[in-house]
Amino acid sequence: MLVTSALLAAAISVIAALLILWSNPARNVNRAIFSCTLHLAAWLFCLHLAFVLVPGLPWVRLASAVGTWLPMHFWIVKQTIVIPPGEYGRGWLRRHWAWIALCSLLAGVCFTTWFVPAHSTGTNRIYGWGYYGYIAVNLGLYAFLLRDAWVGTRKLSGVRRLELQVWLLGGCSTAAGILALMSLSALTHDRSYVRLQPLVVLLFYGATAYAITTHRILNARQLLMVAGSRLMLVMVASAVAFLLDRALSAVFSDVVALLITTGAVLLLAAELNTWLQQTLRLYPQAGAARLAAFEIARREMEIARLLPAFSRLIKGWGQTERTLLAFGEKDLLSGDGEAIADGAAVRALRALRWATPERLARERNSPDRAELARLLEERRLGVAVIAEGPTLTAIVGAGVPVSRRPFTYPQVSHLVELAAIMQAAIERAHFSVKAQRAEQLATVGLMGAGLAHEIRNPLVTIKTFVQLLPKHYDDRAFREKFTGLIGDEVTRIDHLTEQLLDLASPRAYSPQNIELHAVLQSGLELVSGKARDRRVELRRELDAAPDRVLSDAAAVKQVLLNLCLNAIQAIPSDAAERWVRVATRRVERGIELVVEDSGPGIPAEIRARLFQPFQSTKSSGFGLGLAVCSDIVARLDATIVADPAQPGRGATFRVVLPCPAS
């Protein structure tokens, strides 16, 4: 059997129709488009038979009669899109009787001599007035459909507006093009115009079927610009490759010329592609938003600051007033202090990777997707994407834009990139919080023995006086001394436990004006017990005056304890000198806190990655202490550095804390 373009177009139309029905068989619009596509395939098959069979005139009449009913079918598709599902079936004949009568009349004309006279032959085709009347009436019908669809698109939004644009505006324009080819064939007596009709159908319907079955929402202007830029890129690269290969072949061997040409063309294509994107502004907001996301991820370290910054970025990128940033583990995510998506919505989004109301309306429904659609509707979101990491899942959504236009697929792709950046930043912030918490608890554990000793001493004193109280109760001086001592020792115990609880409690750091030396003295009091147990002398040289800094007291204390405990543990048990020096002094940028020890110093192999997690020379611990210190001082606009290694000297760390503005 001879395969013609009409037969190929008919087969592709049938496949497209099945895919459209399969995507959501319960939806009336999909059913209407499915039947319309089969109708188009039937017309193409009749056209194929007219091309290959002799005589072909009966099949020309049949193809024309079948095509007569296509405007009515387009009208049915339009009504299905515009009218709500529950109301479409009512009064069907009343709405379509005029179409049925007119299409029946035109179909009948196709089988009369008014359409094609009896003396017309395949080599000398003659058309009657009915043929031209057929074309004129059909053009009028499609013009009416175009106008009606254009008015309808201005009243609709979302998926219904898109479908009306694709199927009515695009489909009717394609049909008008086919009728124009029929007119040219009749006027020029050139049958090659008729053979172009299936190609017009393929051009339109192939792109439309691809868009529907792969769930892409395409912006026509952007699609044309992207296609034009790709065509220009291919043409320029091909021309340069041809000319360069011809020129180099005269000087070098064919292999060398090919290698040089390939490298030069690849370099040219990369540069030209970048230039075209910037010149045509194919993705005007994507690059700026991506850079802004990276900058936010680099600058902000706390989740409480990351989320508002990312929310503002999404609002600007999507030109919307609503955003969704939900994150968590497994299927339960939360944001804004409440549960955002349950397991069903997360599972649906994980399977789809991204969702828009338009995509969910077109596709096959399921309980999970219905839950996701409900989430989008409740939050008034125009798009939602999911990004998953090793331990954290994030959902990023943007509200319906102020223009009310659906998000295009390139925009969805950009949001997927932004979501990946945001997910990584939020996951890093989570790890940072967990690391700080672990280091806090590790510090409390390390100081436990020393603090137990500090608390035991006043308890022993209290116990001794309690034992002596019965014998010396009548001694007024003893009672007064006992009363004062008990109060002092209880106050001391209370102070120690309060500091320990304050150190162990999680907190968000916020800079404020504090007296640095008071904070340092409080921290050194906590670590003094550990120093005594290890027979290490604590040297204090707090010389900075004035000592007010813009920082967080708990954060400074945590940094001091980490550095001091590291220094105490670094000193070998058989070292001749056993001391840790804590000093302050005024510098140009603020007040410098110095923690120096008499240990062996920092090994050269870990100095380059000293402030990275899991770097330690000790047999115990996770190596998070210095990484946590670096993270804390970065949040407080402070700096921490380690002095270069010097023979015979231990490690020296310098923390510069900013002073309040005068």
Automatic annotation (TrEMBL):
Coiled coil: none
UniProt domain Histidine kinase: residue ranges: 450-661
E.C. code: 2.7.13.3
Catalytic activity reported: ATP + protein L-histidine = ADP + protein N-phospho-L-histidine
UniProt GO molecular function: ATP binding; phosphorelay sensor kinase activity
CDD domains listed in its UniProt record: HisKA (cd00082)
Keyword field: ATP-binding, Kinase, Membrane, Nucleotide-binding, Phosphoprotein, Transferase, Transmembrane, Transmembrane helix, Two-component regulatory system
Enzyme class at the top of the EC tree: transferase
InterPro entries: HATPase_C_sf (IPR036890), HATPase_dom (IPR003594), His_kinase_dom (IPR005467), HisK_dim/P_dom (IPR003661), HisK_dim/P_sf (IPR036097), Sig_transdc_His_kin-like_C (IPR004358)
Pfam families referenced in this protein's UniProt entry, alphabetically: HATPase_c, HisKA
Source species, domain of life: Bacteria
Annotated transmembrane regions: 6-25, 32-53, 97-117, 129-146, 166-187, 193-212, 224-244, 250-270
PANTHER family assigned to the protein according to its UniProt record, in alphabetical order: PEROXIDE STRESS-ACTIVATED HISTIDINE KINASE MAK3, SENSOR HISTIDINE KINASE
Name of this protein: histidine kinase
Organism lineage string: Bacteria, Pseudomonadati, Verrucomicrobiota, Opitutia, Opitutales
